[in-house]
Structure formats: C-alpha cells, structure tokens
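Sorry to interrupt, but I need a hand with the structure work. Go ahead and set the record down below:
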Amino acid sequence: MKVLIFLFLLSLESLAQQKTGNLTGKVIDVETKQPIFGVNVIIENTFLGSATDAKGEFKIKNIPAGKYILKLSAIGYETTRIEIEIAPSRETNLLIEMKPTAYTVEPVVITATKREQTLSEIPISTNVVESDLISSRNNLQVDDILRYVPGVNIIQYQINIRGSSGYSRGTGTRVLILFDGMPFLTGDAGEIIWEAIPVWQIDRIEVVKGAGSALYGSNAIGGVINVITKETSQRKNFRFRTYFGMYDKPYYAQWRWSERDRFYYGGFASFNGMIGNLGTLIHIQRGIDEGYKQNQNYHRWNIFTKFKYNFSAYSTINFLFNYLRQKNETFFYWKNLRNALRPRDEDIGAMVSSERFNTLVQFKKILSSNLFYIARAGFFRNKWNDNATPQNRSTAGLTNYEFQINYQPNEKHYLIFGIDGTFNLVKSSLFGRRNSHSIALYIQDEFKATEKFTFSYGLRNDLYKLDTLKYTGQINPKLNALYRLSEMLSLRTSFGTGFRAPAISEAFTSTTAAGVTVKPNPSLKPERAISFEIGSRFINPIISADIAIFWNHYWNLIEPVFDVDGKIIFKNVTEARIQGAEIGLNLFPASPVNFSLGYTYLNPWDLSEDAILKYRPRHIFYANGNLSYKFFFIGVDFRFISKYERIDELLKLIVPDAEARVPIYVVDARAGLNFKNLRLFFNVNNLLQYNYVEIVGNLAPIRSFNVSVEFEI
C-alpha cells in the first residue's frame, strides 16, 4: 500500500513539471508610500500565492509561463487585481500600490467546499464570526459565541442549527465541529467539549448550514462548524489578558443560596512569532468560576501550541497540541422553582475531574500551479471520572486521518477528492470496552459553465462499524448551483443528504444518574436526512443581505424514551420534517458604525407523532450594533428565542416544575478602549436580568459584570 501511494505521488510530481518563471514584488500604501505587511498575494485560477513580509515584499516561485490575474487583499485596503505575464526562466518584478479603505474585506471561507472561496462564491448558507467581535464580547467559551449566529441556538451546551437537534444530555451531536479542519468530538459520547477550545486564539469561526455529509460524513447531518485558530506570525509578539467578573444577586430573594457575591476570573499569556525557521504559537490559560448556582463551580487549565515549518515555498507542515485539565461541580437540575439555583440535596457535592488533549499534524505540498495535496492526522484523548458511588469513569482515544487532493485541470473545473477514516477505543464503566472505526471516499467537481453560472456536484461513500453492530454503509450525494446576476447579487440552490452513526453512549450506556436509569440498545440504526435550500446573497461595501428558504427531512432520529420496564432507552423513533426561512442583514457604512440582524422561522414537525418536535423554537431573532470613535467603542447584542412548545414527557415525571419555561429575551452590552498595544473591555451579560431556562430545571446565567485588560508587545 505504501509503495502504491509513493508511486502515485511520484506520478503527480512528474505531471507537475513544466517551464516556469518567478514573480517578486513590493506592496506599498498609495498615500504614505510605506510597505504593507501581511498582504495576501494570489495568482487567480491557480494554487500559487504568497504574503508580504515586514518590508512589504513577496516572492512566488515556479509559475508556469503565461498570462494571469494577480489578486492582492489586506484588511484596511481595497482588493487590487492586476494583469501580469510570466516568461519562462525569468523573474518578473513589480511595485504595487494599494489604496486604504474603511470598508470590510469580504471573508474567505474554506469549510463549505473544502477549498478557499470568498463568501459571495459559496452556494450554501454560511456565516463567519471574526476574532475582533469574539475579543470585544469577552466570551469564555465557543458556544457563547455561537449564540448570536443566525439560525443557531444552544440548549445547554448542545448546538442546534435550523432545528436539526433537540436535547439529550451527554450524547452525540447532529452538528459536526471541526478544530482547524479536524473533527473535534469525544470518542465515547460523541459530544463537543467547548471549554477545550482556546477562545482567544481563534482567527474566525465558519458556520455552514444544511446536511454536509457528502464532504464530511457522520455528524454533519445538520451542518458543520469549523473553528480556525490564528496562524503563526512572522513578527514576534507577546499577548497578556486578564479578566475579572461578578454575578449579580438573583432576581428573587428566595433564590439566593450564598451569603457572598460569586466571582469568575482568569487570563492567558501567549507568544506568537518565529523561533529560527519555526513559526511558533504558545498559549497558556487559567480560568476559575465560582458559579451563580450552588454546586456549579469549575477550575481549569488550558494549554495550546501551534508550530509551522516551511520546507520550501510550496511545502509546509503544521503541528498542533491542545490540552485541558478541569475540575467542575455538576448541577443536574434544580430542587424546585422556589429553589431554582439549588440542586437536589442528593446532588450536592457531585463533581467531575477530566483531562483532555488533542493533537493534529498536517502536511501540505503544492506540486504545481493546479495541483496540491494535504495529508493530516489527529488524535483526541478524553478521560474523566466523577465522585459518584460507584464511581463513573471513561477513557476514549479517537484517531482521525485524511488525505485530500485538489486539482484544477482548467479554468472550468475544480476537482477535490480524498479518503478519510477514524479509529476509536473506549474503556468506560458506563459503556464497557468498546471500539468503532470508519473509512470513506469522497469526490467533488466544481464546474464553471459560464462567467455567471457555476454548479458543483459530489459524492461520498462511508463505511462505519460500531463495536458489535454490523457494518453500515452510506452514500451521500450533493448538488449545488450559483448564478451571479451581477458582481453584487447572486442566486443559489443546494441539495444534499446526511447521516449520523449512533454514538457509543447511545448504544451502550448502562447507568443510573439523577434518579434516572438508562439501559443499552445495541440495535440502533444511523440517522438519515435530506436537505434542500434556495437562497440569494447581496454583498457590497455598504450592505450585505442573505435570504434562504430551506426544507429538511429526517429519518430514524435517535431519542431517549421510557421502555416498558420504566427505564430509559435510546431508540430510532422519529421521522421529522423541518421547513423554514432565514434572513440576515449586515450594514457596514464608511462611518465607524455597523449593525446586523438575523431572523429564522422554523416549522419543526414530528411526523411520527404528528406534533411539533421537542426543544425546537419556531422563531429565532438576533441583532447587534457597534459604534466606535477614535479609541472608544460600544456594542450591544440582543437575542430572542420563542418558547419551546414541547419537551420530553419523561422529564416532567423527574424534574419538579418542568413546565416553567418562557420565551428568551437577552441583552448583552459592552464598551471599551482600544489603544495601540492596550485594550480595555467592560461587559454586562444579561443586562436586563431576565430569568429563563434553555433546558428544563436549569436557570440560565443571571446578570453578570466583567472587566478585562489585554496588553500586547
């Protein structure tokens, strides 16, 4: 097998050989004539590119002779395109001037189609959250960031895109989370560990909506979220940040369980820069939260490192290591509504200790102007134990690997094909000794029929085995189309299928917790889905708008139900249809003001029971505004989520006052000062002290205040 792969790569190398030339240049500000650092320089319709260094200089080697369009983009400058001609065995030198602008550069997205494209080129509903907004909100976890993305709502750590998920504690997700392109789910429960992601080292978050299994396989049944961390920098810099926060007193006196104020605090220190020829990013973070509820505090350490080494201009390796160590108390649900911040007496003192780490190695080699490959492998170890009697514990090791080839034979076709797989080992008191593995092949072709019309089609074949269950095969096709009515306005449509294999926790859990007994069901089948969408996107420097109408159909949804013996068991019980519409609007005027809103309407229907799906709202509305003047800025966020019309009937038998739920109205506010190397932030979360629940028996965070300071040298 290794010999075949070697011969295949050797053949790719030989195909890549042709007469070439080099391109060098310097980029300067048209007004100040000063060099511009960090400009992305790309030769369009090829995989060749570079970025300017501290002197504003760049170099692109081994360019096939011919005529091209050179594209330059940088934050704070207008995107520039110029015609160039490369002669064989010669070096072309350019001096390029770029014009400053107050407008925002259109974001580049890689998750939707597994390749870099601007937002206006993507035929699927996609949102991007940038690092500046994350920093100013002082969000401590990624799930808090996602609470303000259109079409997304969080139900106590479980993510829901356009109604694809409900709520099931400690089990798998219907939204695939990627961490720098690699799946980031635990091997045992198949869940997301939000607190393990280093928030302050995030460059951006890409949210792709609709079934994505044709490219990403299991768990992408409802969408894909890719958390992309910052790149290593050519310039050395040190960053330090500290924050201190305090919870307000509960709204009702009878909810007050502590005689003193409750605090949360922490910070990080990081280094990013070159050590010799090695790009290096090191981040160490500490966080403590005393909790606004009784029995809810945590203590955690995070360590994140990223290294990048360039063997040549077209051959790069990246290594990532991420570590979390945490001790946290566990609040299952309230004692009753009059004691909304107190757990049941028997749950006081419940605690979990955990240690998690993941690694990622990625090698990328550009073989020619139209051909490159990426090989990556990752490992996620998840270990935890609680202090219950008897003690529950679990250790899981999940390995992911992928080999991807991108090939552009001409200007009309862009091919992506690859192979990926997983291998998972679990040892747990809850699930026993279990294993799973999978392998998949995928291919996608993007065809540019005309200058205005592009469509892409693809197929993925997954083979999955969960321990003693039989092998399960799944073929997922996709078809997308984009028609550009003008440079600013486009129409799109997309169709795809999705699936989700059962998590080990759903098939094999055997435990009793919080008064509930769960038994295994090894006969579970994969969930399946079909997703369809039509939409339109308008983008210009002043305003951008996006509208979509979607239809999703689901089969074999796995839900917890009471069995005849009174115990809970996970079963394939639900067939569902979710229809809806979504609109997003962003205003980016030349003045330092911006405003955005998003509204999603859902009709989530359980066809098996002819009733609305559990834990799905009908209406989701978000809005935020920001204003800056010189070094001062303020911002406000608002979110509305309509009341869940239906919940688990079994929870009504277990949780006191389970029907105590209301629509969600939350306002968060922030202000700050932004100097050259120093930034100060002041945030108020849940400004109006609105009391609500996301999941029955759990009061959501009450009003809190925090101050943070960040310094960079």
Notes: The domain at 18-98 is CATH 2.60.40.1120 (Immunoglobulin-like).
